[in-house]
Design a protein that fits this description.
The structure is a single chain. The chain has about 325 residues and is an all-alpha fold. It has two domains: about 30 residues; about 280 residues, MetI-like fold. The protein is about 70% helix and about 0% strand. The protein has 16 helices and no strands. The relative contact order is 0.12. Keywords: Cell membrane, Membrane, Transmembrane, Transmembrane helix, Transport. It is a multi-pass membrane protein. It is found in: Cell membrane. This is Putative peptide transport system permease protein.
Length: about 325
């Protein structure tokens, strides 16, 4: 009987143990300098709220929009070219009006924001993964490995970013069968944006790794025969993350702009899967015919997303800079 009560008491402690641990972690985050800096930075709070609003409305777009802009059967041509709701000719529920095909502008913007955010985030993660790995290898080993990686980066930096992206997109699209071009449009865009973007991360990490590899804790790890990959991942990489996080945040906005630029030039997302860049390209054709809302509202949404991301990046750069503390 005593053993049973002890077992029950032990199980209860095991079940309740994670709760105080989670509370302790939340308290540590709440009391951290980074959280205090965020709470006392009005522009960062505003940008975070704005970006969260855009992300949530894009995520729940199927439940808050009057139509699915990807469903051609839902488009009604007799409801085309309707102006915004505050105009005398406006109609409910088309708050921001419709385009020449009867597509609701608000629905297209929310669905397009989802595509732009996903492509921007995925391209940053892909470029960060490649750049972080190659930068650690180049900075730790040095020698001919460093020369090969950095010269490859120099070749990519010597060519315009948009030219590389267009070349990759054109080659990938021409190599695919017709039925797969639209299906793989998003992965191709992610690849096209990530390939010329990894160099910045690699150069940043390489500079930090070359400094860290000469320090005593790395030399001590080498003396006890710790494997190089463990030294790079567990010792050097944590000390290189601060500038990388700042660069990744700022490049997130650039990646969204790059996707919009490629789609605007006609080598990005197809018209039946419109991103913000595709919507701007389509609306630009009707800008001077009086249908200004087709291009203005997607452009405003794109500006708000990039502005909020850049404001968060500026705050993060200042908050993680030890010279400004």
């Amino acid at each position: 009987m005593a053993d049973l009560s002890m077992t029950t008491e032990t199980d209860t402690k095991t079940e309740t143990a994670p709760l105080p641990a989670r509370r302790a972690r939340l308290a540590a985050i709440r009391d951290s300098d980074l959280w205090h800096s965020f709470r006392t930075h009005p522009s960062a709070v505003f940008a975070a709220c704005l970006l969260a609003l855009v992300a949530l409305t894009a995520l729940f777009a199927p439940w808050i929009t009057p139509q699915d802009p990807y469903d051609l059967a839902a488009l009604e041509l007799w409801n085309s070219e309707i102006p915004p709701i505050w105009n005398e000719a406006g109609q409910w529920p088309y708050i921001l009006g419709t385009d020449t095909q009867g597509r609701d502008i608000l629905s297209a913007i929310l669905y397009g924001s989802r595509i732009s955010l996903i492509i921007g985030f995925a391209s940053v993660i892909a470029a960060l993964s490649v750049g972080l790995s190659l930068g650690l290898i180049a900075g730790y080993f040095g020698g001919w490995i460093d020369n090969v990686i950095m010269r490859l980066g120099d070749v990519l930096l010597s060519m315009p970013f948009i030219l590389i992206a267009i070349l990759i997109t054109a080659v990938a699209t021409a190599s695919l069968p017709t039925g797969l071009k639209d299906v793989l449009a998003a992965p191709i865009l992610i690849l096209a944006i990530a390939v010329p973007s990894w160099v910045q991360y690699a150069r940043t990490v390489r500079a930090s790794a070359m400094v860290e590899r000469k320090k005593e804790y790395v030399q001590a790890a080498r003396l006890i025969r710790v494997k190089p990959w463990r030294i790079m991942l567990h010792h050097i990489m944590p000390n290189c993350l601060t500038p990388i996080l700042v660069a990744a945040t700022l490049n997130f906005g650039l990646a969204i702009l790059s996707e919009a630029t490629l789609s605007f030039l006609g080598v990005g997302m197809p018209p039946d899967q419109p991103s913000l860049g595709t919507l701007i390209r389509i609306g630009n054709q009707y800008l001077f015919s009086g249908l200004w809302w087709i291009v203005v509202f997607p452009a405003v949404q794109l500006c708000l997303i990039v502005l909020s991301v850049n404001m968060i990046g500026d705050w993060l750069r200042d908050a993680l800079n030890p010279k400004l503390r």
